[in-house]
């Protein structure tokens, strides 16, 4: 009966290496903002907190279980030809290690449920609404002049600002900080997905379905975004940029847009 | 071709029959998937039947089915289930010639059902590409029709084997299997008929 | 201990090629399955290397976007439909009848049909490359995109339907075999755990695969007959495809892992020299996973806005519980054991750790708001590969090294096996761990390239190195197999001092499997025979 005999020094080295790897990965994860950016919206911050909590639980479970496995491999390696005790199982142990996971998942689910309820809001009519159209393989953003959020100059204005992207010229989506922004999603060809990494959120753009969501941005900056649902040939380069600016800068941008598009036309959808 | 039958205690259901019943379970799931698609499509549509585009309306397309002929066809199919069951009972008593007669009647009834279905298809005022109503209608009835055709072939093979004297009171498992399949096809049709023609 | 004699069927002499083409012997069919599926493993792996080469550096143009979409679609399709699902049919075919003491499967000719559907289906699927382009809408073929693909898509649909038929009738075969053909004394709860996992897998295949057939038929009708199942312009619903597709494809992932868990559950006890801890709990956990697996499908659809998120999030969390129970039972098997580290054990232990990671990173996606960020990013690609490669593929290799002596009568070389494992383990983690970070950084799935300004290149490059390391690691395996075939068949019946009935007969077994079978009094009949029944309790 052949037995694999791994030299003691090699085993010790492997053990220390494993510890070192775990330590390095944990530290690097922790330093890289726990892997995930904190997000730029109120909703993202809540989802990021849930991520951190889940990550902590995951790491504790992983190191606990993996630690037990590694320990067992060292402690209970074959030392003699005697048969070890032929334990078939233990009902008590089964109950314990079924109950504890149930408690853990119920805890995680409850927290997740609360966050879900908190981040899925409906918009108020006076919130800025951006109509997003995804098409193969770029984006279009439409703002109604009578629906520009807190500082809408004229709630009876007719006309729209339309920004349409091209593959060579990715569009920039501009929104103001500090107030709710609603996005409505429309596609007339295939399914796309509106994904802004720093929203920690994406929502699919589905033909025949009126998807929409609201966020409350809290940070000014320029952020990368791209389609996150395979939509055909150039899915990989269906990118756009999100720019979050102060309300004043947003109003300035709006008036600049009106200047560049003096005859914005009502678009039939 | 079992080396031994192991620890089974009940021999009423042979291996072949058990396997056939499992196969029928998979068929139930296949039609289940199609039915689910129908119900979901129907629930998601603002109106049922859905609104037709203008050009189709102008061309005279209508999304409706008539009741009378399919109802008669349904009765014939149900009757064919009854007749094949008479055939099974006959061979259980060893009456080979009765089995052959009942099989023949069931085959004829099944063929009449299929013919009436095909006639119905030719008279319908819509096609498979006329909204999801047309698509689900033809997909569901089409796959069912294919299974009826398969069942007719199955019954024909069984009838020929009966005529060749291969079945007796103690050996007629294939006849039972055939009758199970035919009843299954019938039950699926009753569900279809209720869904497509009665509940609409 | 008494044993029962088995009547021997007549055997026929036939030319070798004709014999293999017309065989209905479960052992030969099992070997044919293994050759075929391992071939597609290497095909799928090569496609993966193309993907990784393209993604190794930013703004790359190694392949164009059109070809890239076909390549990752066919990578996944080959790996899932032509490798991992049918490879379990291969192991199951060879081993299950032996483990229950039977002479063959219940329906040998149906068995042959099941196998012979696979190679033509594979060829059909790949023939798309010759007809204007293979399927290119992902293995998930979402509508309406899939309606726009070329002929390759139709070939793909038909191929998958054929494979589904193979799966479904194979499942009925396994179920009847296990229900009806067990050796005297082998009650259901004395059946080897590998057989149990194949049984539950067969139930899933029987009930879920037909729904895929329905979905694929609907897609074919939409593509070719102007159907409107998934077309909103005809009153149809694009999300309907996702519902019908995932109703099968989620149970499918349990089809892809459960027999692997069964193999690990055979190997760990043998090389720890004690029984599987909590055999009954393990059986119930397997059934639980199978049952719950039918109730979680919409967790693939959280970002559609069209599903009941709390329900599916809850069910997805719940399925973590029986999965965790299994991991703890494996740990309990190792605990206070007498462990040695032959190659089958190395792969089984690798499975344990990698599947633990894969199960944990899947839990993140069960938390719905977290999934909003992770869905359709490389985080999910990491999850998929930790469970399917670190899990299932490692289990495949554990099975290979463990049962190679039984199937081919020779032992695989230990040193080469250790080299294979070490390289594959390191390469695997290098390839797929960085993908967690890439997903968190915002890299979506299925993109043909990325810009240098996103700073994804370093992690992608490391991942590519890992992928090539995996490729290199298969060389010692292949060399090992070839060298083994040149050695004489010298293996004893039971080279590992194992527990189950396949080790009672010769290596390889005779055509009729057993001259006699010992009476079975526990789930470890060989152990009982070696030590006398008293020692087993």
What is the makeup of the main sheet of chain B?
none
Point out poorly predicted stretches of chain C. Answer: none
Mean pLDDT of chain C: 95
- Under CATH at level 1, the class of chain C stands as Mainly Alpha
User: What is the CATH class designation of the domain at 67-200 in chain B?
Assistant: Mainly Alpha
Describe this structure as you would to a colleague.
The complex is a heterotrimer of chains A (269), B (200) and C (537). Chain A is of the alpha+beta class and 269 residues long. Chain A folds into 2 domains: 112 residues, Helix Hairpins (Orthogonal Bundle), CATH 1.10.287; 129 residues, Immunoglobulin-like (Sandwich), CATH 2.60.40.420. Chain A is built from 4 helices and 10 strands, in the order αααββββββββββα. Chain A has a 5-stranded mixed beta sheet with strand order 3-2-1-5-8, with helices on one face. A 5-stranded mixed beta sheet of chain A has the order 4-10-9-6-7. In chain A, α2 packs antiparallel against α3. Chain B has a domain of 134 residues: Cytochrome c oxidase, subunit III, four-helix bundle (Four Helix Bundle (Hemerythrin (Met), subunit A)), CATH 1.20.120.80. Chain B is 74% helix and 0% strand. In chain B, α1 runs antiparallel to α5 and α3 packs antiparallel against α6. Chain B is elongated. The relative contact order of chain C is 0.11. The model of chain C has no long low-confidence stretch (mean pLDDT 95). Chain C is built from 16 helices and 2 strands. Chain C has a single domain, classed as Cytochrome c oxidase-like, subunit I domain (Cytochrome C Oxidase, Chain A, Up-down Bundle), CATH 1.20.210.10. Chain C has 537 residues and is mainly alpha-helical. Chain C is 66% helix and 1% strand. Classes of the chains: A alpha+beta (269), B mainly alpha (200), C mainly alpha (537).
Kindly list the characteristics that best describe this protein.
A: alpha+beta, Immunoglobulin-like, 2 domains, 5-stranded mixed beta sheet, 22% strand, elongated, B: 200 residues, Four Helix Bundle (Hemerythrin (Met), subunit A), 6 helices, 74% helix, 0% strand, disordered N terminus
């Amino acid at each position: 009966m052949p037995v694999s005999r791994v030299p003691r020094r090699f085993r010790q080295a492997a053990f220390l290496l494993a510890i070192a790897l775990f330590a390095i990965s944990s530290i690097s994860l922790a330093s890289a903002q726990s892997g995930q950016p904190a997000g730029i919206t109120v909703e993202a911050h809540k989802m990021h907190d849930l991520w951190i909590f889940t990550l902590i639980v995951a790491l504790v479970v992983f190191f606990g279980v993996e630690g037990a496995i590694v320990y067992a491999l060292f402690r209970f390696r074959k030392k003699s030809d005697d048969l070890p005790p032929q334990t078939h199982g233990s009902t008590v142990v089964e109950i314990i290690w079924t109950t504890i996971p149930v408690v853990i998942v119920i805890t995680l689910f409850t927290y997740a449920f609360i966050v879900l309820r908190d981040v899925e809001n409906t918009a108020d009519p006076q919130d800025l609404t951006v109509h997003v159209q995804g098409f193969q393989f770029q984006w279009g953003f439409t703002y109604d002049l009578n629906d520009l959020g807190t500082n809408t100059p004229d709630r009876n204005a007719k006309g729209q600002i339309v920004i349409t992207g091209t593959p060579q010229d990715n569009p920039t989506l501009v929104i103001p900080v500090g107030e709710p922004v609603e996005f409505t999603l429309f596609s007339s060809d295939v399914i796309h997905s509106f994904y802004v990494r720093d929203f920690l959120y994406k929502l699919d753009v589905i033909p025949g379905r009126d998807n929409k969501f609201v966020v409350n941005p809290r940070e000014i900056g320029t952020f990368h975004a791209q389609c996150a649902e395979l939509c055909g040939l150039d899915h990989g380069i269906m990118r756009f940029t999100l720019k979050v600016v102060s309300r004043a800068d947003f109003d300035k941008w709006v008036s600049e847009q009106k200047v560049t598009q003096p005859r914005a036309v009502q678009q039939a959808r | 071709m079992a080396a031994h039958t192991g620890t089974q205690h009940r021999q009423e259901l042979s291996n072949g029959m058990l396997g056939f019943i499992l196969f029928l379970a998979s068929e139930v799931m296949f039609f289940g998937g199609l039915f689910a698609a129908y119900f979901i499509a129907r629930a998601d549509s603002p109106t049922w039947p859905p609104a037709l585009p203008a050009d189709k309306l102008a061309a005279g397309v209508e999304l409706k089915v008539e009741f009378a002929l399919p109802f008669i066809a349904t009765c014939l199919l149900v009757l064919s289930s009854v007749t094949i069951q008479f055939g099974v009972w006959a061979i259980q008593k060893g009456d080979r010639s009765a089995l052959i007669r009942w099989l023949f009647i069931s085959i004829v009834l099944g063929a009449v059902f299929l013919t009436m279905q095909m006639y119905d298809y030719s008279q319908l005022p819509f096609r498979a590409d006329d909204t999801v109503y047309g698509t689900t209608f033809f997909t569901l009835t089409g796959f069912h029709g294919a299974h009826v055709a398969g069942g007719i072939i199955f019954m024909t093979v069984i009838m020929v084997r009966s005529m060749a004297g291969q079945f007796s009171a103690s050996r007629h498992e294939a006849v039972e299997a055939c009758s199970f399949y035919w009843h299954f096809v019938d039950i699926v049709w009753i569900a279809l008929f209720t869904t497509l023609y009665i509940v609409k | 201990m008494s044993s029962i004699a088995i009547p021997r069927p007549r055997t026929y002499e036939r030319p070798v090629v004709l014999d293999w083409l017309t065989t209905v012997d479960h052992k030969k069919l099992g070997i044919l399955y293994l050759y075929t599926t391992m071939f597609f493993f290497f095909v799928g792996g090569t496609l993966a290397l193309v993907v990784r080469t393209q993604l190794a550096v930013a703004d790359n143009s190694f392949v164009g976007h059109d070809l890239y979409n076909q390549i990752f679609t066919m990578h996944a399709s080959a790996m899932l439909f032509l490798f991992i699902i049918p490879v379990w049919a291969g192991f199951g075919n060879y081993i299950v009848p032996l483990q229950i003491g039977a002479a063959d499967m219940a329906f040998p000719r149906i068995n042959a049909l099941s196998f012979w559907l696979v190679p033509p289906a594979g060829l059909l699927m790949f023939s798309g490359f010759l007809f204007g382009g293979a399927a290119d809408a992902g293995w998930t073929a979402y509508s309406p995109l899939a309606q726009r693909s070329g002929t390759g898509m139709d070939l793909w649909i038909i191929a998958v339907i054929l494979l589904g038929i193979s799966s479904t009738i194979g499942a009925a075969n396994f179920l009847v075999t296990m229900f009806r053909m067990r050796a005297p004394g082998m009650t259901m709860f004395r059946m080897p755990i590998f057989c149990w996992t194949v049984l539950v897998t067969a139930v899933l295949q029987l009930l879920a695969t037909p729904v895929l057939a329905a979905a694929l038929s609907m897609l074919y009708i939409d593509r070719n007959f102007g159907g409107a199942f998934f077309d909103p312009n005809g009153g149809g619903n694009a999300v309907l495809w996702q519902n019908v597709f995932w109703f099968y494809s989620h149970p499918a992932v349990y089809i892809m892992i459960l027999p692997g868990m069964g193999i690990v559950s055979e190997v760990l006890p043998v090389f720890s020299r004690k029984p599987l801890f909590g055999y009954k709990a393990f059986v119930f956990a397997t059934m639980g996973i199978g049952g719950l697996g039918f109730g979680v499908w919409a967790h693939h659809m959280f970002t559609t806005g069209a599903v009941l998120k709390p329900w599916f999030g809850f069910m997805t969390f719940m399925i973590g519980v029986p999965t965790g129970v299994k991991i703890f039972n494996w740990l309990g098997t190792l605990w206070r054991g007498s462990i040695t580290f032959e190659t089958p054990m190395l792969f089984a232990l690798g499975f344990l750790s990698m599947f633990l990671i894969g199960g944990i990173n899947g839990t993140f996606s069960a938390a719905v708001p977290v999934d909003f960020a992770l869905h359709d990013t490389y985080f999910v690609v990491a999850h998929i590969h930790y469970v399917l490669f670190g899990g299932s593929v490692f289990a495949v290799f554990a099975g290979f090294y463990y049962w190679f002596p039984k199937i081919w009568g020779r032992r695989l070389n230990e040193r080469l096996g250790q080299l294979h494992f070490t390289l594959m383990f390191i390469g695997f983690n290098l390839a797929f761990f960085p993908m967690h970070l890439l997903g968190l950084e915002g890299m979506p799935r299925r993109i043909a390239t990325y810009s240098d300004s996103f700073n994804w290149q370093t992690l992608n490059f490391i991942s590519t190195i890992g992928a090539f390391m995996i490729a290199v690691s298969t060389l010692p395996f292949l060399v090992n197999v070839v060298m083994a075939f040149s050695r004489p068949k010298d293996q004893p019946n039971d080279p590992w001092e194992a527990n189950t009935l396949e080790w009672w007969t010769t290596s390889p077994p005779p055509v009729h499997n057993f001259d006699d079978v010992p009476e079975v009094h526990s789930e470890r009949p060989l152990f009982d025979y070696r030590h006398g029944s008293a020692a087993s309790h």
